[in-house]
Amino acid sequence: EADIYQTPRYLVIGTGKKITLECSQTMGHDKMYWYQQDPGMELHLIHYSYGVNSTEKGDLSSESTVSRIRTEHFPLTLESARPSHTSQYLCASSEGRGGGETQYFGPGTRLLVL
Amino acid sequence: GQNIDQPTEMTATEGAIVQINCTYQTSGFNGLFWYQQHAGEAPTFLSYNVLDGLEEKGRFSSFLSRSKGYSYLLLKELQMKDSASYLCAVTLRGGYQKVTFGIGTKLQVIP
Asked: How confident is the model at residue A97 (pLDDT cuts 50, 70, 90)?
């Protein structure tokens, strides 16, 4: 059973607001990921991290930023939310011992920007 | 880039067997995941194939042919709770685990 948490689960916010989506895992995993998924569409990787102080952009360009100051914590920030940011954001982690290890997903944050 | 193809929707009857296919074209292929995702929920891990052949895990089995760029997920003795999207995802060789997901196959199990 994976222990990866995301807060908030649901967020409705106005345009221009700054928001931070939290993601924490208690498994000691080195690698963490953020995906964006629109309803009925595939997951798109927007950020990933190999470990503390390591962050990289994913395949899908995103205006969000991430930080990895602690192993267990990988928050995602939008400085100025826009309606185009409305989506589901999924955080995941994996052990990081090489190619192929399973990614464990958090429950996701559904974001609606008005 | 990577290209992953799977049917968008399938319907099957409770108690039956269904096979969900996935084809991929990618460079630096390492392995292939299958995930299950119920509506509004996060994906959960089903299987991971690196070598050619069939791997069985209870009612679910997954097959991989690296030379053909082809995989399938086989679900036996279908239950209503199996109604979900099934995501095919490929991993690439490299210093990090880069995973590319397909759009998913939405399976509806009917009585």
From this structure: low
